[in-house]
Design brief:
The complex is a heterodimer of chains A (437) and B (251). Chain A is of the alpha/beta class and 437 residues long. Chain A contains ten helices and 19 strands. Chain B is globular and about 55 Å long. Classes of the chains: A alpha/beta (437), B alpha/beta (251).
Chain lengths: 437, 251
């Protein structure tokens, strides 16, 4: 028998928000039941906090002081004005899908152009109301009863279902931008389905959030046999406050998944990923680049499930911290007993620019098979004075030399990720971040 | 060009005394070789000239073209014309060699109040200098010194020297780790930079390098002091007899 917890102001606020919003939230009766179940979990367990192992270093309960209402629906005209000032990707040639205040806006999205390429984009909330709605909220086993996912299930307002037809190779990247037009929490879920042999490059951006109200975004990737998905996610200063992003990935056979989670700016950012191999001879390359200063928190958490044999995974994470910022890396590779010939290589490296910065590196391997190659490593250090001296001895002033070295440190992950479209955007972001110091 | 007066220095961290009163004057256009056994302070001297902060100067001064070198930061010294060719050039992953060269050259030009070089002008300059040293475009695209062989690293150092056109070149055991062919290429690169306005300090253990880069003056450094100064024939004598005559004990 567990004693009921004392709810914090934020938790009470979230439950009040649920009671106020539940009648208007999208979904069939089974979806409504799942939402109620998720709200009950919140009532019983509260927000994820430091006594929950997965949130030991990222205490959402302590961070979230209050609960804002869900962001109200906006018109396309209002969103258009906000979008005009959101230039995260510059003039990068791309398709765009717009979600504003948690709701998909087809009128502002390249729906027709994408359809011509073999990509259908539909409203997630419509799908939730349909017959298979509840299945769209299914949680992978490795996610357990994750509190952030539960919050998403309880409140999800909308999003998109993006389906790429078999064999379609989409030449231009697709930007999925989530923009806050007015204050309030934004809770979204996007399902990205690649049929057999399809290829897609996705860039997920967030903009316009002033910090009043959390962002909780789930991305559900279903990558069929021989399909290839590359995704870049930017959790930047355009999205302030608490930004919680979750990826659920399932890979078929001979499939490839490549992701890079880029964190620079939010006060509390968690990018968590649950990757499951369901078919043989597939590969997942998961990269992370985090920067935090002040009292910000940048958390990259992932669980990779090697449930089948002959799959490779590579995890490479870089973190730069300044001020009293905290960085978190939690990475776990699970190798099931029959998942022989698994090749997993995980590395996390952190660079601390100040005395007060703190990094928690937690790489984990859980291996039940006996014929596997798995490696993991973690480093944490300061800028190498010898490198700095070498650059200065060539005439490069100290501040510029430091910028060069930090950029070089982070670029290792960006370059290995190797999505040339976004390399410049990301490296410029790093420079911008450093220039503020 | 360079005047070192009664220079005393120690390791900042533990106070170990390394240099115990060095006096050295290098005039424009001269090449000075500094030889000496391990631990005599040769590399320390080169690091102090370049501005490494691991050492503490306790006495004496260094004048570079009349300016107090010890008052200048490492990058200011470089912009003023001091260049140290490192004994062990450092690998910097993530910084492309070409990008590094451009940043360094333009930083120095900026510090001297000169305009930055345009990219085409810069590329032309690098290509012409690189060809002399057998430095390939492939090397220039790679991260600085990462995966370079010993010879490639040293050639990369001399390329930097050729590009930056310093007034004072300090070569710290540039011959270490070089095979005969690489030694010849590197020496030719250095000789090409000889000019009446440019001085060099060549630090080496072996006379071999001095066959290629012929010095005007040779100094023997021992226990932090210059104990003997002579012409290039001094190097030959050292090669034959060792340092024992000058350091008072077998090196």
């Amino acid at each position: 028998m567990t004693t009921p917890i004392t709810l914090t102001q934020a938790e009470t606020g979230l439950l009040d928000r649920f009671d106020a919003a539940r009648a208007g939230l999208a979904g069939s009766a089974p979806v409504a039941a799942l939402r109620a179940e998720a709200a009950a979990q919140l009532r019983a367990k509260g927000l994820p906090h430091r006594r929950v192992e997965e949130y030991k270093y990222s205490d959402l309960r302590a961070f979230l002081k209050s609960a804002a209402p869900l962001a109200a629906a906006v018109t396309e005209a209002e969103a258009k004005a906000a979008l005009a000032s959101a230039g995260l990707l510059g003039n990068l040639d791309r398709f765009r899908i717009v979600i504003a205040n948690g709701t998909f806006l087809p009128g502002l999205s390249d729906v027709a152009a994408l359809a011509a390429e073999g990509v259908s984009v539909t409203d997630f909330s419509t799908a939730l109301a349909g017959e298979g709605g509840a299945a769209l909220l299914a949680q992978p086993k490795s996610a357990g009863s994750d509190g952030v996912l539960a919050l998403n299930t309880a409140f999800v307002q909308g999003g998109v279902v993006l389906s790429v037809k078999a064999g379609a190779e989409i030449a231009k990247p697709v930007e999925l931008i989530q923009i806050a037009v007015s204050e309030g929490a934004q809770v979204t879920r996007c399902r990205v389905e690649l049929a057999e042999g399809a290829q897609l490059r996705l860039i997920e951006t967030f903009a316009g959030n002033a910090g009043a109200g959390e962002i909780n975004a789930v991305f559900d990737y279903v990558v069929a046999d021989k399909a290839k998905l590359a995704s870049t996610r930017l959790l930047t200063s355009e999205a302030a406050g608490a930004v919680l992003a979750t990826t659920l990935s399932r890979l078929g056979a001979e499939a490839e998944l490549k992701t890079l989670g880029f964190i620079a700016g939010p006060e509390f950012a968690r990018n968590q990923q649950f990757v499951a191999f369901a078919g043989e001879h597939s590969e997942a390359k998961i990269y992370g680049v985090s920067m935090a200063r002040g009292k910000a928190l940048a958390d990259q958490t992932l669980i990779v499930d090697h449930a089948v044999p002959h799959c490779n995974s590579r995890e490479f994470f870089k973190t730069v911290l300044d001020g009293e910022a905290r960085g978190v890396y939690q990475g776990r590779i699970n190798v099931a007993q029959h998942a022989q010939k698994t090749d997993g290589e995980m590395m996390t490296q952190a660079l601390l620019l100040s005395e007060g910065a703190e990094m928690a590196n937690k790489p984990e391997l859980e291996i039940f098979a006996d014929d596997v190659i798995c490696a993991h490593g973690a480093t944490c250090g300061q800028i190498d004075e010898d490198l700095l001296f070498y650059l200065r001895a060539r005439g490069i002033p100290e501040a510029e030399a430091r910028t060069l070295l930090v950029l070089a440190f982070l670029s290792e992950a960006i370059e290995e990720f190797g999505e040339d479209d976004v390399t410049d955007v990301l490296e410029q972001r790093v420079r911008d971040w450093l220039a503020v110091a | 060009m360079l005047e070192i007066k009664n220079l005393h220095a120690r390791i900042a961290e533990d106070g170990t005394e390394i240099l115990r009163g060095i006096n050295l004057t290098v005039n424009p256009g001269e090449i000075h070789a500094i030889m000496g056994p391990n631990g005599s302070g040769k590399s320390t001297l080169s690091y102090i000239l370049a501005g490494k902060e691991d050492y503490e100067v306790t006495e004496g001064e260094i004048l570079f073209n009349g300016e107090n070198l010890l008052d200048m930061e490492a990058d200011a010294r470089a912009a003023a014309g001091v260049f140290l060719a490192f004994q062990y050039p450092i690998e910097i992953p993530g910084v492309a060699t070409m990008e590094f060269l451009k940043t360094a050259l333009n930083a120095q030009r900026k510090a001297r109040g000169e305009a930055e070089l345009s990219i085409p002008d810069f590329l032309k300059l690098v290509k012409s200098k690189a060809a002399d040293l057998n430095v390939t475009m492939d090397m220039l695209k790679r991260p600085l010194n990462v995966g370079f062989s010993g010879g490639e690293k040293k050639r990369s150092e001399i390329l930097q020297m050729a590009l930056l056109q310093p007034k004072l070149c300090v070569l710290d055991e540039t011959d270490s780790g070089l095979d005969i062919d690489a030694l010849r290429i590197v020496s030719e690169g250095v000789n090409k930079l000889r000019s009446p306005e440019r001085s060099m300090i060549v630090i080496t253990h072996y006379q071999r390098l001095l066959d290629h880069i012929v010095p005007d003056v040779v100094h023997v450094l021992s226990k932090g002091r210059i104990v003997k100064t002579g012409g290039k024939e001094l190097a030959l004598e050292l090669e034959k007899n060792g340092y024992a005559d000058y350091v008072g004990e077998a090196a």
